Amino acid sequence: MSAPLSPSGVVGLAGRVPAVDSDPVRSGALVLAGAPLPLTGALHLYTCGITPYDVTHLGHAATFVWADALAAVAREAGVTPVVCRNVTDVDDVLTDAATGRGWPYDEFALTQEFLFDRDMAALRVAAPTHAPHARAHVRHVVQLAAALLRAGAAYEREGHVFFRGAPAVAGSGVGESEAARLAEEFGDRADDGRDDPCDVPVWRPSAEDQPAWPSPWGWGRPGWHAECAAMAWSVCGASVDVLAGGADLAFPHHAYQAAMVEAASGVAPFARRQVHWGEVRLDGAKMAKSTGNLVLVADLLAEHRPAAVRLLLLDRPWAEPWDYRAEDLQAAERRLDELYAAAGRPGAGRPDAGPVLDRLLHDLDVPGAVAVALDQGGASARALLRVLKLDA
Fold first, then answer.
1. Quick one: 37-324 is in which CATH superfamily?
2. Residue 4 has what pLDDT?
3. pTM (2 d.p.)
4. Edge-to-edge order in the sheet of strand 80-87
């Protein structure tokens, strides 16, 4: 990484000695999702976080390890990552899970968040710059709803505030029938009097056994997409560089989240780039808490080095879905040892880290960077281990 420039320029030719640092400026070299994404000063990254109602599985880990790798690559290129990762601690699935275990929903969420943070720390995922919690941003959801109503992008109906979602569906490229199927898969059923099945709740009334807050439309709670829209806008502003999450969040969640901020703020696009990490599967089926086909991070960490688990997640094209197999983790252990051995080789190939960083900046090409590191060894391998946090 290039050394920081002095804040004071040099006046007079006598002080203009040859530059010691001749590394190219790489902050403008990032390519992400197939297109250039030049950066200056900072990378503003919003990563959709967890709904804390159960333990962390490998699919969660893939999302947050990849986001962490993107932030680390940006830092290596000379810009400061500003990472916002929310916690959705107001959600019906969380309330139901807590009730089933005899816990208040907010206390239950805190215990699950603690376990998640412990797993992330073990995987060397850096703590985010900002970690907004939905419970602390209900007021901002109310403000978002009011802004959408004033913009004509939402309407009130019997204690609900619905966002007019047809433009978001059309812009996503998802057909209406598929959109309805995906919405129902995430628990949003269009049976509450909305004008159009594509519309989604920004605010909704709460039953007696559901968390509730006061609003101009009565006591209620936020809708899921509105929570992330409000948290992102209030913490990051009306636009971010990257909106990231698992592939299953592309629609409906990210489509509606971005559309709400754009409609209320007048700033578009909300995200310069949306990035959706490939789905992690087990025996061909998506790994998900709702289906129970889980590989738990804590179980893997009990038997394998955290760096090997990170390498398993990262040494592949980031957008492609993949199936977890125990033998692949064994292969990652062996590949990690090969990288450690390569790092100890004296001066093989080019002695600088530039080729590795070039591969990482080119659409997070970790397999290409690993190949360069193994071929060149020495500083190149050490750079890969450092940037991807595999050196411990």
1. HUPs (3.40.50.620)
2. 60
3. 0.93
4. 80-87, 42-50, 240-246, 271-277
